[in-house]
Amino acid sequence: MTSGTTRTHLVWDWNGTLLDDTHAVIQATNAAFAEVEVAPITLEQYREMYTIPIPRFYERFLGRLPTEAEWERMDGVFHRYYTEQRVACGLTAGAEELLHEWQRAGRSQSLLSMYGHEQLVPVVRGYGIEPRFVRVEGRTGPSGGSKALHMERHFAALAGAGGVDGFSPENVVVIGDALDDAVAAAHVGARAVLYTGGSHSRSSLEGAGVPVVDSLGEAVALAETFSA
Q1: pLDDT band at 6, cuts 50/70/90?
Q2: pLDDT in tens, 134-167
Q3: Alpha-carbon dihedral angle through residues 59, 65, 67, 69, given to the nearest 10 degrees
Q4: How many CA atoms lie within 13 A of 33 on its CB side?
Q5: Is 15 helix (H, G, I), strand (E, B) or coil?
Q6: What is the β-pairing status of strands 172-176 and 90-91?
Q7: By its UniProt entry, which InterPro entries does this protein fall under (predicted)?
């Protein structure tokens, strides 16, 4: 598949970006915290304190890193509760139209998430947007880490056979809701735009030194200005 009328390729994040699931994440986080007797937190607290890797995020509330046994228990509870809550989540306002318009203009886009790959693909398919992407990839291996190495593998696939014609990292814009999305983009030589509707507060995101926007429409509009 070719990148069409512009060389700019979008790499979308899923949770908190295309999927409006932040409240489900908060509920699942609080269920995990209850496992180690940590008081529930608010959305504002979550956005101010969130960091990667996740055990470091938990440390901010526990006062210490969780033990291996605690981490495994908390992670299991989180994913169980999240799976229950996710079914009520919809796509972020305007996301479906933006994906459609970008594809209709002959431009390419892909999806890379830290949500487990085996869970991600059927979920994306269920929202009816899988055909909008040249590639849909979720996390493989243990949860809780950074996106950088996953982004590296994603870019290698996009540059390979069956990927995007003329693919080049400097012509890629990563759109996500977390500081880790900006870190992962920088790791592979791409640009990033960060969206305030997900896991971080605006003030936290502004520390990344990349553009910060309040809607996905603004993110796409900025990506268009990056076009070569």
Answers
A1: low
A2: 999 999 988 777 899 999 999 999 999 888 998 9
A3: 30
A4: 20
A5: strand
A6: unpaired
A7: HAD-like_hydrolase_sf, HAD-like_sf, HAD_sf, PGP-like_dom2
CA angle, 63 then 64 then 68, to 5°: 145
Which tokens go with 37? 């007797």
Q: How far apart are CA 139 and CA 143, in angstroms?
A: 8
- State the amino acid at position 10 in one-letter form: L
Asked if residue 113 lies in contact with residue 120, where contact means CB atoms within 8 angstroms, the answer is: yes
- Cα-flanking dihedrals φ and ψ of residue 65, to 5°? -65, 140
Say how many residues make up the chain.
228
What are the strands of the beta sheet with 9-12, ordered from one edge? 136-139, 109-116, 9-12, 172-176, 191-195, 212-213
Q: Average pLDDT of 25-47?
A: 96
Work out whether strand 90-91 and strand 191-195 pair parallel, antiparallel, or are unpaired: unpaired
Record the tokens describing residue 69, joined without a space.
Answer: 């046994």
pLDDT tens-place string over residues 86-106: 999 999 999 999 999 999 999
Closest CA to 59 of 142, 144, 182, 116: 144
In terms of phi and psi (left: phi > 0; alpha: psi -120 to 50; beta: otherwise), the region of 37 is left
Which two tokens mark 100? 């459609």
Give the SS3 label for residue 212: strand
